[in-house]
Structure formats: C-alpha cells, structure tokens
Amino acid sequence: MKNDLFASGAFSAGCNYWASHAGIFMWSDWRPGEIEQDLVQMQEAGFKIIRVFPLWPDFQPLTSIKGCLGKHREFRNGETPLENSAGVSDEMMSRFKFLADEAERHDIKLIVGLLTGWMSGRNFVPAALERLNVITDAVAVMWEVRFVKYFVRYFKDHPAIAAWDLGNECNCMGKASTREEAWCWASAITNAIKSEDKSRPVVSGMHSLGVSEEQCWNIFDQSEILDVLTTHPYPFFTPNCDNGPLNTIRNCLHPAVESRYYGDVGGKPCVVEEAGTLTSMICNEEVKADYIRAAVFSSWVADCRLFLWWCAYDQGHIRRPPYEWYSHERELGVFRKDRSPKPFFRIFREFSALMKKIPSLPPRSIEAVCILTMGQRQWDAALGTVVLAKQAGFEVEFQYATEPLKASKFYIMPSTCGSDPIYVEGWLELIDKVKSGATLFVSCDSGRFSPFEPVFGLEPVYREKRTGPVTFKLKGDNDNSVFSTPATYRMKIDCKGAEVLAAEPDGNPALTSFALGKGRVYFLAAPIESNTAASYGDFRDGFYKIYKHIASPFLQDRAFEKETPVLGITEHALNGRERIAVIINYSPELIEEELKLKNGWSINSVLYGTMRSENKIILGKNDVLVIKLTK
C-alpha cells in the first residue's frame, strides 16, 4: 500500500462531513450551493481531508416488486426499472461527482464510506433489503458487492479520492454471529473494491474491535483483510473512558492509546477516524478545546496518521430521526448552523500551521513492549499500562500473547488473569529473552504460570480469595506512600532468591525482583493496570512509581528527566545529534517544571508553544510545547 496520507510520520487533521443544511439527508435535499460554501469554509479552516458518505438507500434505491402471494418478482428503483445492473441511481452519482469535483478544486481529499447503512443511531438500508441481515444474507451481500463495484469503477480515476472505506461502522448495520461471518462479509466488500481499484488503500470504518476468539469483529481479522484500521474513540461509549473529566489524562490519551492498541496488535496503520465530545452537557467549549489540543497532539506523536473530528456542522435544526431521537447528535460540529466557528476551531488552525513546519515526525522512542494476554480485559490493561508509563516517563508498544515476540529489552505483562495468559511456547521464549538480558515485569490478579518458581524466585505456599484490597509500601519511596488496590486472590509467598521490594502489613511479599540469567524479573501481586483504567478520577494514587523504579535503567538515553506525572514527554530522533521533543500537560492545571536536560542535550528552538525561561516550562491547562533539541 503506497499512500502518503497513511505514511508513517505523516499526519492530517480533518473532519467527517455531512452538508450544513441537511446532514444525513443532503443527497435527497440537494443544494449544491450550500455544499460549495461548506467546502470553502473547510478549506479556510485548514482541513486537508474529510470523510464523506453516499447514503446507501439514496444511491441504491432498490425496491422488491411482489407478485402472487407476495412472492418477489423483480427489483426496481421505486417503480422504475433499474437504471443499471447494480441498481444505482445515476442522478446520485452525478451529485457525488459534484462533491468530489468541488473537493478537488478546494484542495481537499476524500475518504469515501461506501456502504453507509448505519449512521448516528439509525439504520439506512434500501427498502428491498430492510428485512434481511445485510451482513450474512446472500441476496443483500450480492447487491452490496454490485453497488460497491459500480461506485468504485465510476470514481476510481477521480483525483480527490484518497481512500475507500467499507462504510460507517458496518458492524452496527447487521448482525454477525461468528467471526467467520464477519470475516466473509469484510472480505467480500474489500475484494469488490480492490477488483476495481488497486491503487487506493481500503479503510476499515469499524469501531469496537477486540482480540479474543469470541469477538466477531476482530482486530486480527480486520488486519488480515484491510489496509488501514480505524478507531472511533468517544469516551462516552468506550469502557472506562467516562470515569473522569474529559480534560484529564485518561481521556486525552484515549484516541492515541486505542489506535496504537489496534495498530500494534494488528500490524497495520490505524487512524482516529472519528472523535468528538458529543452533547454539550459533557463539557463546555473551553474544556472541549483543551481536550482536543491534548488528544490531537497525543495522536500525532503516537503516529496515528489521521485525526478526524465528528463532524463539520451542527445538525440540531434537522427535524428527522436520528436527530429527533438523540440529543447527542445535534451539536457536534466544528461550525454552527450559521457557519460561525466554535472556540475549539482555533486548535485545528494552530495544528495545521505546525504541520507545515514538521511535515513528517520521526517515530517516538519506545522503551517497552506491553504483552496483552488471554483471559484478561485487554483494553483495560492496555489503557492502564499507557497511563502509568506516561506518568513514569516512558513509552510502550503493544502486542498480543499469541503473536511472535517483538524485540525489546523491557517487557510488561499487565494484570494477568486465568490459567492460560500465554501459551507455553511464548512463555518459554520470553524467559529466554530475560536470560539473555531483558527485563520482565508481570502484574498478577488470577494469572497462573508454569514454570513459576524458577522464573520469579518465589514459592507459592497457598492461595485464597481476598476479602479486601491488597495494601503495601514500596521500599525506598521517600514519600512514604502506602498503596492499596483491589485484587481477587492473596497468594502466600516464600522467597526463593527473590528480593522483596514491597510487602503487605504482615510481611507477605507484594512486589519482588529476581535475577534470571543476565536479566531480571519483577512480580507484583496486584492488577494495577486494569484497576487504574477502571478507577475514577485522574490517577493520583502513585502506582506509576512502581513503573518508574523498574524502568529507570531504560530511561538513560532520554534527553529529559521529569518529576510531574501529568507531563507526557515523547522524544523523536531526527539524527544522532538532533531530536524533537513534545511535552503535553495532561491536566487542567497550570504546571511549572524545570526541565532536567541530560547527556549534553540543549534546547535549540521552540516550534510550538512558549518557553518562559531557559530550561523552565510553564504549561497552561492541557497545553503543549514542541521543541527541537541538539547535542
């Protein structure tokens, strides 16, 4: 797949688009003048890419004409014979061509969501297919393939189109009962697109994917079939992302973490295809702007390639479902109905200006591989791991336990559960990595490993269910902090060579360290990552100190040391003597800190934001500083 839009290091901010005057109903309430004005405004806003949608029943208006006893006789477009073998409206195709031509004229590229049968809480399906399961029914899939092939063939040479999208959240427009059914549908539609156009990438358009065998819509399957994965990271709908204020670290990191989770595990680029704050009752415009700044910059530094807001225009003036049904679908725009921009609009303008200075950002330095395991809540473990790592001052990438082990000197297996967190081949390979010099940190709820004692230097005496949280104190913690967190089991442990770094009040080890070959293994008897993700508030319980202690040997090459846990710092090497550093305040509070530069690094220039004095930063709420370093 060759496409600059999705190249590593490239990044674009844009939006999803329905026309300002009619929203979803723009194709039937056709006003080309309004659409042209919309595109002018989006160009002036600096949007280079928008996602657009040919509403399925408008473009393929199939009706089933019945005969005796209600038996199907033929398909028509309403009462009119089909205009072509795909049942596609040529009038609608000409309307879409107008949109594409105007987008090209205004230097805006399009991602086209082909099968838009689900949109904003309402299903839009051709009348003839309404009673069918459009994911599994052979008649429905046949007409879907015909529509897709016709549409792609018609527009494959249009320069405005950057990518094809299967459709909007197609896993909501029909039910797949098995992974195999979901795989067959996605494969059929993708192959239909690629049979007509091999030059453009095909984008998933899905949300809420997983890694377990039980989940029909699966990261591995989508990665096998598609060129680009997508996330739609709304805190309102994502587990454990509505547990604190929008402008705190959990939600500001959410789009980047979920996209890296999909992309790292799937081995394909993953973009933030939809993001938004939904109803105005979630936050005011000031908080929204602060959240967007931190979320967009976090996605940029994590190499998420795209960040598309939902959506361009408010739609509260439209008196038809779904806008009549759902309050959270009415005030989502960058622009209001009168075309006035909302205050957060300036964030996109500022970011667009920065992209001209830094058209391609080198990959961030990554210190650890987070191995997500079977039997756990993988999303919780992933989110909690990144939050704690950010607070501690390092970066992680993901992989799943069944995948080939990624090369690293530092591995984290967070919040392990059950009797099969990792297959024995993978476990033995990981042990060999440690013996060769790597570090492994395992946090455990109910996870069970074999072999155990020779790996961790611990002998389990017995296990029992906990009736309360596990409480322990980290040795050498100058703040004298006492940690307390839920855990399912208490394991009575005898040390067989392991060093106790933290213990429960009765002396039972809670955190241990053990030298294994040339490497080291750490064990924690508490699932701090999944508990962190599931907790409420902004993570002031200090669990990051455990991460910081274990990761300290791997932070020596960093240009900075930091003290404030809500500051996130990524470093991007331009070459051996130059780096870009991005510093993000993940809190709604003013942060002052003296930057501790190491190893001969110095600040060369400020690319975004303001330095108050040499080496001292004062970052406002959710603010960002981008600087260039030289050595």
CATH class of the largest domain: Alpha Beta
From the helix content, strand content and strand pairing, which structural class follows?
alpha/beta
Number of strands: 31
Work out the helicity level: 25-40%
Can you characterise this structure?
- Helix 4 runs parallel beside helix 5 (179-196), helix 7 (249-266) runs parallel beside helix 8 and helix 10 crosses helix 13.
- The radius of gyration is 26 Å and the shape is globular.
- A hairpin with a 5-residue loop joins strand 21 and strand 22 (509-516).
- The longest helix is centred in the first third of the chain and has 18 residues, at 138-155.
- The two termini are 36 Å apart.
- It contains 14 helices and 31 strands.
- It is 27% helix and 25% strand.
- The protein folds into three domains: 4-60 and 88-357, Alpha-Beta Barrel (TIM Barrel), CATH 3.20.20.80; 368-555, 3-Layer(aba) Sandwich (Rossmann fold); 560-630, Sandwich (Immunoglobulin-like).
- The strands form eight sheets. It has a nine-stranded mixed sheet with strand order 14-13-15-16-23-22-21-18-19, sandwiched between helices. It has an eight-stranded parallel sheet with strand order 9-8-5-2-1-12-11-10. Strands 25-26-31-29 form a four-stranded antiparallel sheet, with helices on one face.
- By secondary structure, the protein is α/β, with parallel strands linked by helices.
